[in-house]
Design brief:
Largest interface: A-B, 36 and 41 residues
CATH topology of chain B: 3 helical TM bundles of succinate and fumarate reductases
CATH architecture of chain B: Up-down Bundle
Radius of gyration of chain B: 22 Å
Largest sheet of chain A: none
Number of strands of chain B: 0
CATH topology of chain A: 3 helical TM bundles of succinate and fumarate reductases
Number of helices of chain B: 5
Strand content of chain B: under 5%
Oligomer: heterodimer
Number of strands of chain A: 0
């Protein structure tokens, strides 16, 4: 088992990571052009396909997915083991949330890989 | 407390403790808001992954289909059309509020964890104010509220002006 100290260290580091990758994500959607333009499928550099065609932006979305998945589910774990204390409960919560977090990461990664592949072929 | 209490009673009491922040000062408000915002953002995060997953084919598709581009464009356009209503606009504005708050308050907690901006330890005499909420830390808490309100206004303008 990973110690609580290590988990909280990763929690803080992923928080800092989200600060960067989240700023890039929110910045590309809100600050590069009017939101309506960026929410179109294609046609401008920061529309959906434009973002995924750019390997750096697509990579930062994958990083954001990993950071948020850890940070969110570790945060939920902290809340749940604070609500009620018992070794069995803590064990169950930790494993259940690890499985859910992994499923979210795998599913999200698949979306990013397919979107990246599609975007390479979009004019 | 004598005797063993059942799980539900413990849960109700614990929930009441972190959902009712009155009478315990600014730090308790920060604690409650940080948790509520965290849970709400987590729900949004999972919904966002599910929603974007459907654009490339949903849970059953793990390869790149021959018509992937047309399919994705069609589902994306349908999804945007489905989400373009005041209910989702308001939801996103609230997410904006919570994300902004969680970010700045998270930075405050990060700094507090490393002892930055904390007051000097004092003798814990009755009615003493906790040094963990120094003027610097208080200012950072209010900065997180201010940034959250800004984000609420910004996203409301961006979405209601555009999507609806």
């Amino acid at each position: 088992m990973v110690s609580e100290r290590t988990l909280m260290l990763i929690h803080y580091l992923t928080g800092l990571g989200i600060l960067v990758a989240g700023a890039v994500h929110i910045g590309t959607v809100f600050l590069t052009a009017p939101v309506k333009e960026n929410l179109e499928f294609a046609g401008s550099p920061f529309a959906v396909m434009g973002v995924y065609r750019n390997a750096i932006l697509a990579g930062s979305l994958e990083a954001l997915l990993l950071f948020v998945a850890f940070h969110a589910f570790n945060g939920l774990r902290v809340i749940l083991i604070e609500l009620y204390q018992s070794p069995r409960w803590e064990h169950a919560v930790t494993w259940a949330l690890t499985v859910v977090a992994l499923l979210v990461v795998i599913y999200g990664t698949r979306t990013i890989i397919i979107a990246y592949s599609i975007a390479q072929g979009v004019a | 407390m004598a005797g063993r209490r059942n799980g539900l009673a413990v849960l109700v009491e614990a929930l009441r403790t972190w959902l009712v922040p009155y009478r315990y000062g600014l730090e308790r408000w920060s604690y409650t808001l940080q948790r509520i915002s965290g849970v709400v953002i987590t729900l949004y995060f999972v919904a966002h992954i599910v929603e974007t997953g459907y654009v490339v084919g949903g849970p059953s598709v793990w390869t790149i289909r021959p018509d992937a581009q047309q399919y994705a464009e069609r589902v994306w356009t349908e999804t945007i059309k489905f989400l373009s209503n005041p209910l989702f606009d308001a939801g996103l504005a609230i997410i904006g509020f919570f994300v902004a708050f969680h970010t700045i308050n998270g930075i405050r907690l990060f700094l507090a964890h490393f002892g930055w901006g904390l007051g000097r330890p004092t003798r814990p005499e009755p009615m003493h104010r906790p040094q963990s909420m120094s003027p610097t830390q208080r200012a950072l808490f209010w900065a997180s509220i201010a940034f959250a309100v800004f984000a609420l206004v910004y996203t409301t303008n961006a979405f209601f002006g555009v999507l609806a």
